[in-house]
Specification:
Blueprint lengths: L5 E6 L24 E6 L2 H10 L2 H6 L1 E2 L37 E3 L22 E6 L5 H5 E7 L5 E9 L6 E4 L14 E7 L11 E9 H5 L9 E5 L7 H5 L3 E4 L6 E6 L13 E6 L1 E2 L9 E3 L11 E7 L4 E7 L2 E3 L2 E4 L4 H11 L1
Parallel strand pairs: 3-7, 12-18
Antiparallel strand pairs: 1-2, 2-10, 4-12, 5-14, 6-7, 6-9, 7-8, 8-11, 9-10, 10-11, 13-14, 13-17, 15-16, 16-20, 17-18, 19-20
Length: 354
């Protein structure tokens, strides 16, 4: 790990609150330090170095991070640096529906006019294989690619989604796109490029100022129930991320079995080699293939590079907006799964977004 990165342990705080409303939500409780959340802060100098590091050539050369089979989710989920030993699974996170539901609404994208938002071809909306997203709208600016480097110099790519928050500066991604579950190494030169397409950076490159993951993800060696993370990013030309591209809503302790849409930058040839945004849709079902799993999935699989991409409920294809309920984490057969965003994820979000 870069010695200038500083990791600090923080603890869980639960927000028992009703749904939040309005375009600019305010958290009802200021999060307090507690055990379970790990925050890694990045110095201003390292952020500048990260921005310089990611040349066009390095973007092209980054290796797509793969998802893992649910049967192996006691190990590190990252295809970049897998764990070599199995760690027993701990008690799972709180079951769905046991916490107070919290909703943070989407934030419109000022950079995209309503006239540019067109609905996708309805005939392609339901598919067991990912299809190119051609619908434009908020998802086309708030979904993007993540790039990072590990301690041995390897460079990798994932996906992430802008989540609305008080600081207007956070993205949701997979835990395995932030930290090596086998060693606890938090990745460096971490950047997010919203609206990435064919190597283009239409809204600039946002560098991480802090990365947030759950301690349980590392202590279990990569239990995918905890395979979610948030990144807080800096500004570009003095503007925050959400003020530049908008933000998706996010929901915690949501009902399950919903119709959801997933988005990511899969690296297969059929998905455009990681150079375009792809889309799946389906009704989510419980992961029954792994003891203790609290994950939910759909009948669709996006390939390496889609890790961390958003799962959204109440998605409006005409505007491209919805509510994040998880991120692409693991795949098995023809299914892909997301961790459930319960109280642990809410605590992490509060720390990242306050």
């Amino acid at each position: 790990m870069n010695p200038r990165l500083r990791a600090t342990g923080l603890a869980t705080v639960l927000l028992a609150a009703a749904a939040l409303a309005g375009a600019s939500p305010a958290l009802a409780v200021t999060p307090a330090p507690s055990a379970g959340t790990v925050a890694t802060h990045v110095s201003g100098n390292d952020q500048r170095e990260a921005a310089r590091f990611w040349t066009a050539a390095r973007l092209r050369g980054a290796k797509d991070v793969t998802t893992a089979d649910p049967a192996r989710t006691g190990r590190a989920a990252s295809g970049a640096v897998p764990a070599d030993s199995f760690v027993p699974t701990p008690p799972p996170p709180e079951a769905a529906g046991t916490g107070a539901r919290v909703l943070v609404p989407p934030r419109p994208a000022p950079a995209v006019s309503p006239a540019s938002r067109t609905a996708p071809d309805a005939s392609a909306a339901l598919a067991s294989d990912p299809t190119a997203w051609t619908g434009g709208g908020l998802i086309s600016t708030t979904e993007g690619k993540v790039f990072f480097q590990n301690s041995t110099g390897g460079t990798f790519a994932c996906s992430a989604t802008v989540a609305n928050s008080d600081n207007k500066s956070i993205v949701l991604t997979a835990g395995h796109c932030v930290v090596d579950a086998a060693t606890g190494e938090v990745y460096q030169n971490w950047v997010f490029i919203p609206g990435y397409a064919n190597g283009n950076r239409p809204y600039g490159t946002f560098t991480a100022s802090a990365l947030f993951h759950r301690d349980e993800y590392v202590s279990t060696g990569g239990n995918a129930n905890y395979d979610f993370a948030f990144a807080k990013v800096g500004t570009v030309n003095g503007a925050t991320l959400a003020d530049t591209v908008g933000a998706q809503g996010i929901a915690f302790n949501s009902p399950t079995g919903q119709d959801v849409h997933s988005f990511g930058y899969g690296g297969s040839a059929a998905e455009g080699g990681g150079e375009r945004l792809n889309h799946c849709e389906g009704t989510e079902f419980a992961d029954t293939g792994r003891a203790g799993s609290t994950m939910w999935g759909i009948d669709c699989v996006q390939t390496g590079g889609s890790s961390g991409g958003g799962f959204l409920s109440n998605f409006d294809s005409s505007t491209g907006g919805g509510y994040l309920v998880g991120n692409i984490s693991v795949s098995a057969g023809s299914n892909e799964y997301h961790p459930y965003l319960g109280n642990e994820a809410l605590s992490l979000y509060q720390q990242a977004g306050s």
